[in-house]
Structures are given as C-alpha cells and as structure tokens.
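Encoded backbone
================
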Amino acid sequence: MRSELHRVQSDCYKLIYDNEGKKEETLELVVPDRCGDIGRILDVRAQLYLVSKKLLDGEAHISSRAELCVIFCAEETGAIEYVTAELRFEQQFSIGESDCELFAQVRLASVDARALNPRKLLLRAECCAHARCYTSEQFTVWDGFELDSPPPAYIQKKELIHSLLTDLREKSFTISDEYTLPAKYSGAKMLSTETELSVYDVKPVGNKLVFKANANTAALFLNTEDGSVFKYDFSSQFSQIIEIDATEEAASFVFPALKETEFVSLPDREGVCFSMRLTMTAQAICQKSVVSSFIADAYSTSYELSTEAQELSYTRLATSARLRIPLKGKLPSGGNYRSLAYITPISVNCMAEGASIISRAELCGFAENEDGELVPLRLTLSAEEQLSLAERQRLELISFCGEPLSVEQGGEVSLAVTVEYSIYEQGSITAVRELYYDEEKPINQSELPSLTVLIAPGNDELWTLAKKYGSTVELITAVNSCGEDFSPSKRPLLIPRA
C-alpha cells in the first residue's frame, strides 16, 4: 500500500545558464576635413552601453555599443585634435530554452587605435558580455505523513539550511544632475566622458528593495585657450526602489547598466556648466535563507516497508562581502615628464579563478616629455587576492569598480578596486518521497528478541540501531538515560523491541 506523504513546495528560480563571451569589432575611420593629418595617437577613450537583451528561439541576444574618442597630435602643427566614432556589438548565446529570465552585463575588455595612413584610423574594441538565465521552479521536499492516521511506520526527519532565489526584478530609470567646472577652465570644451556605476548599499524594506549607488564620471576637456587636454571627475549619488516579494532577511544584489548618457552644455549659466542625464537599467536578485524539514529515512516494525527517494541539489550562501584590492605600478620612464596631462583607467576587470580574485586595470593617458613632445602613456596594473574556500564551496563575483587613481611623485601609480563577492556551498541530499508497505507481509514479532544488549563498542547513530533491532529512538533513550546525559556510544546499551 502506498502511503501519502505531505509535500512542501517553495516557489523559486533556478540558474540554468551562466556564460561569458567576448566579441571584437573594428572600424576604419577617415579623419574629417576639420582635422589635420594624424601625427601621433595620444589616447583612445570609450564608454560602453547595454543597448538591449532578449531571448529568441532558445538564444540570448545581447546588443551593446561603444562610443570612442581618439585624441592625436596633428602632424604639421602639433596641435591636439580629436575624432569620435561608434562601434556596435551583437553577441549570441545558445540557451536551448526561451521560457526563462535573462540577466545580462557588459564590460569593455580593451580598446585601441592606430593610424593606417595620415587620414585614416583603424579602431578596435573588445566587449565582454555575461549572460545568465533563470527558470521558474519549485523546491519540493516531504516532511511527514499526509493522513491524520499515519501508517505503522517510523520516519527520520532532518533539516536542511539552504538558499533559494525568490525574486528576479528589473527596472529602467533616468537620473539627472548639473556640473560646473572651476572658473579657470572657462574656455574648456568636453571631448569625452566615461561613467561608472557603483552600488554601495542594498536593503530590503518590506516588499521593496532600496539601493543606493554612485555615478562616477571621468570627463576629458580641451582647453581652447592653450590647446591642452585635462581630466575632471564628477560624481552623483542616487537611490531607487524596486518592488519585490522577498522578506527583509533576504540577501539582495543589484546590477546596474548604462543604456545612454547625455551631457549638454548650458551656455546661459555662469562659467562652464552642463547638465548630465543617465538612462540605465537595474537588475536585482534576492536570495532567501530557508530551513527545509525533510524525511531522510523510514522503517516499520509491523510490515515490510520500501521507500522511494529522490536526490535534491541545493545551494547555500555561506558569506557575502566586499574586498578592497590595491593595485600599484610605476609610470614609464619613472614619471620623468615635464608635465602630465592625465592618466586614467580605460578598463578595469576582475575574474575569479578557484579561490583567487584577479584584478587588472589598463591605464591610458599622455604627457609632455623633457623635449616638449606629447607622448602616449600605457600602463597595466594587476593584483591577485587569495581567499579560503572549504570543500564544495565556490567563489562568485557580484560586482567590481575602481576607485580614483593616485599618482605620486616619482611616478608611483596606485588604484584600488572594490570587489563584491559571494561564497556558495553546493551539495545534495536524499529525501524520501514515497512509502510502500505490504499489509500481506507482516513482520513476525515473535522472531525478534524482546531486548538486545550491545557490548561491543560502536559508533552507529540511534536511528540506525533502532531500525536494525526493531526499536525506536525514544525507547532506547528512555531505557538507557537513567537521569543522566545519554550517549549512543555507551556500553552496555539496552535496545528494547518496539
């Protein structure tokens, strides 16, 4: 006879796809007539945007674009010139399923430019896209008998502490601000901007997820009075609310992505003033810690009993933290320049390899050397941080962002990268889902001893002993306690028949 067990189901999401892919695009750009011939390329900057993401016929399609600005010296005059261009990236990932939720992140892996001839540039950029897909599912366990009158059987119940993805949300929004340059830059013209989004606080409040973030912009300007280029940094704080179903105890993560930026000069204002408008999307994930009670084993002292079990995989969020990784290096030639125009990151990347977090920053800029020539600067900074992982644990990066760059006397360069990471523990359990007992095959109690006395030492659990000798955990404990703390390793051990 089949015995009905009580089913406990929890709605959640399951990660079914997680992959990264790189795509390189090139463009041949003819220098416009307003510019002189290309002498020396000083720098190339880029801002990357997530244009769209969609699922179509079992494939994830991620579109992004990069706005590039190339700064160079004119061959005849030596004046600083610039040109702009755009590169588009189309990346596909084979998911095999369309009924799922797609999360996407893009980042710039590298960018460069070289002159093919005095009037033509070859631009190259590489974009890294990260696609993750989740599908709705139910985590199911069985924690007891369904009927009020349970069958003549004993069950062993255990508890599993694990994490479930309970919410996947997305919100698009726009923020705006105004910036003003110091008065000494009254004739400056903006060449390019690079904006980085950094989330520093995420907090569930009721059925809302509140997150706070910074939009840090590094802007390049051309000073029309002396023809020099300089960098100026701006920052705006903002917060947003996303509707969720999770409780306040959930661990939540937010992944913002830029879709468009707009910087407009405000000529009617005093000084160099411009407005900033950022259009972005924020994807949020909420993980809830759950305690699930399940049937691990069963037996009967009355009838022959068989069980049907199912292996269930689980994930537990062990820890989530932030780590500050310092990166240090030295400018080429030891920083012996007449003047440094600027040097700033063009890309900051992090990756997890086993228990290590590897950070890498590509810095670009230019300076004036002792001979009065403008020379490009290229520098790579890297560092590795080792974490401690236990067996069955894995490291996952949530986000990373670079702090402002510092250049000291002697050409010492330092940059700190703040990394948010999580450590997950993965495992599996065997849960009983069905019980079958045969009423036509009763167990002959007379063939079993009414009392068993164990003399030989052993380390079996009480459940194992009770199942083996037709007793119960409660009976063994009651007979052997005698008002004292009881240990299953105690000998002699009395095991009465149930």
